[in-house]
Amino acid sequence: MADQSLPKARTPATPGLPDTEDTTAPAGVSRRRLLTTAGATGLVLGAAGGAAGYAAAPSGATPLASLGEERVPFHVKHQPGITTPAQARGHLVAFDLTAGAGRKEAAALLRRWSDTARRLMAGEPAASGDTDVARDAGPSSLTVTFGFGHSFFARTGLEKQRPVSLDPLPDFSSDRLDKNRSNGDLWVQIGANDALVAFHALRALQKDAGSAARVRWQMNGFNRSPGATAHPMTVRNLMGQVDGTRNPKPTESDFDRRIWVPESGGSDPAWMANGSYVVVRRIRMLLDDWEELSAREQEAVIGRRKSDGAPLSALSGGGETTEMDLEKTDADGNLLVPINAHARITRPDQNGGAAMLRRPFSYHDGFDADGVPDAGLLFICWQADPLRGFVPVQRKLDRGDALSAFVRHEASGLFAVPGGAAEGEYVGQRLLEG
User: Fold this and answer.
1) Which residues pair with 143 in a beta bridge?
2) What are the DSSP E strand ranges found in 176-301?
3) In this structure, is the dihedral angle defined by the CA atoms of residues 426, 430, 432 and 434, taken in order, positive or negative?
4) What are the backbone angles phi and psi of residue 391, rounded to the nearest 5°?
5) Catalytically annotated residue among 96, 130, 194, 243
6) Interstrand relation of 361-367 and 143-149 (parallel, antiparallel or unpaired)
7) At 156, phi and psi to the nearest 5?
8) For the chain: N or C, fewer Cβ within 10 A?
């Protein structure tokens, strides 16, 4: 989704934790690991998500052996699934603690979940009761990410440890939120490049919840599969638009400040060090209305060319990464990028520098009785402070974004996602046992 490149693994900055996710690390041998076909050769391109084909594969295709064997480590400085390249399949699920379940039960649950996530991400079966759904597959870039909602802290008696940044989001005039599909005590994000691997993880974690927690809501998403294009590129959403241009990149000098909670010196509690805050929004796209527009009208709404994502100010030249000229006009003096174009309104330099790392999935939940698609975007964005990242941008969109007529915000959630677990730890241990 995002036009970002990941830094290579460096000397760990924190004892017991790699400094960053190494998505090119070779998979460990397991009974479920997919074996490469005899005589086949494949070159995994890591973060680009592509690979060179072998003789038996169609030209440009990614060998399944390479796709299946890509492994993301669980024990990292920042939880996996944030800067990991977007996967082809995703599941989002929120849980509420059951009546009587408190801090002790939550700690035991996070311990079980972390162990299961570590095993499945390594391509191993769950510790008990494995369903064999993913028996024949490798890790397939599986990631599992855990977060805590605002209500979690009251339920566990940890109100004093609740971050101020987790205060509820303000109301927006464009919201049409279903409370039953919003928020939650606990949040889990699952991503993988194989649908069965992703479902296997979803089912295993739901079973692990046992009597401690129940599912509040669950959503399924998808992206373009790695290797589906001739070369790595930003994905398209269901409106056909390139989605993820100008995403912050880990190589940028201010990326850490914008996305990660600092280890010290900030206003967040110590247990959130190296973590991030995620805003999750189910945004329905009114595709029937959108598709009535001409391609030229759609481009005016977004402010970018549909073909390649280049800004309209680039005229016949340039590309997706070409700098947008907000002042450029046509022969009649009209702005080439309309004043209410989505790309203009969301620019960090138009919002006091506000930035967030977008990592969404598309979704499609069927058609209603009139044949209208229930489809759109599972918008997921990461930032060190949602009040400085998501909120100012959404407020500005709320006041005059041309895209607002074609989307509907139907669910919302904000979750605190702590840093990664060190070897021998579980996610959230510093909160629950601190």
Assistant:
1) 191
2) 186-192, 213-222, 276-285
3) positive
4) -60, -50
5) 243
6) unpaired
7) -110, 5
8) C
Q: Is 243 a catalytic residue?
A: yes
What token pair was written down for 28? 């460990």
DSSP label at residue 258:
H
**Location of structure tokens 């959130």:** 272
Write out pLDDT tens, residues 214-255: 999 999 999 999 989 998 889 999 999 999 888 999 999 999
> Do 106 and 97 meet the contact criterion of CB atoms below 8 Å apart?
yes
Rg, C-alpha atoms of the chain: 22
Q: What is the DSSP string of 33-99?
A: PPPPPTT---EE-GGG--EE--TTSPTTPPPHHHHHH----SS-SS-TTSSSPPPSEEEEEEEEEPT
Backbone angles phi, psi at 359, to 5 degrees: -145, 65
AA letter at 324: M
Ranges of the chain whose pLDDT falls below 70: 1-65
Q: Which amino acid is at 242?
A: V
- Whole-number Å distance between alpha carbons of 134 and 32: 8
Helices 195-209 and 103-121 cross at an angle (nearest 10°) of: 160
Where is 144: in which H helix or E strand?
A: strand 143-149
Cβ burial of 338 (10 Å; 0-12, 13-18, 19+) is middle
Task: Report whether 386 contacts 165 (CB < 8 A).
Answer: yes
- CA dist 27 and 70 (Å) reads 6
Closest by alpha carbon to 346, among 389, 315, 384? 389
d(CA 70, CA 80): 14
Question: Per the structure block, which two tokens stand in for 136?
Answer: 């024949």
Q: ∠ CA(400), CA(402), CA(408), 5° rounding?
A: 90
| Burial (CB count within 10 angstroms: exposed 0-12, middle 13-18, buried 19+), residue 193 | buried
Q: For 23-49, what is each residue's pLDDT tens digit?
A: 444 444 443 443 333 333 332 333 333
